[in-house]
């Protein structure tokens, strides 16, 4: 794969940065670093152009020389600023479908196997790269829509004003769900080991059944106080729904 560009010398963006022919992301990263370098120094436009052009090697150097020659032949205005160079380079090194692909990725992004934090970062990066500007309510709705269902269900019952609040609550729900899942797994493994060790069937404990019924009743009363809902609907809630609502109650109490 051909090497296009290398930043070297005393004033350079990054040590030994090379950009290859079809490494689009690396090219865009290089462009951002050039922007940051220029933002941090009071260079004249003439010096900015020289700092960029003098670093072109191999294909990039030949391509640029031919580009300048063609402009002279056609009687076009020469390049004088970094802002003039950027669109020229983007036309050459950034495919026309790049932004369409970015928007497509942004629109279809979901949490999947990612953590809540990683999902949020991916969404934020996709928005920046696709240059998306939308209302904060739309962004929060998009974020919730891409969360795993068990997390989104609880988060939607929470109070939040900003995307950062929403992120923190979603992360908290994720941790509690993982903790609960780990506890159930440990309990299940322990019960299985005891069952195999005793080599006998589990015997129902009437006292434990009574305690379980009482806990369920307390939960329903608690939920009714915090989330007033119809008594018939509350009575019809299954174990999974009660678990999710209980998690919501625990979060509100913290």
TrEMBL record:
Superkingdom per UniProt: Eukaryota
Any one Pfam family match given in the protein's UniProt record, by short name: Retrotrans_gag
Domain spans labelled Retrotransposon gag: 50-148
Protein's recorded name: Retrotransposon gag domain-containing protein
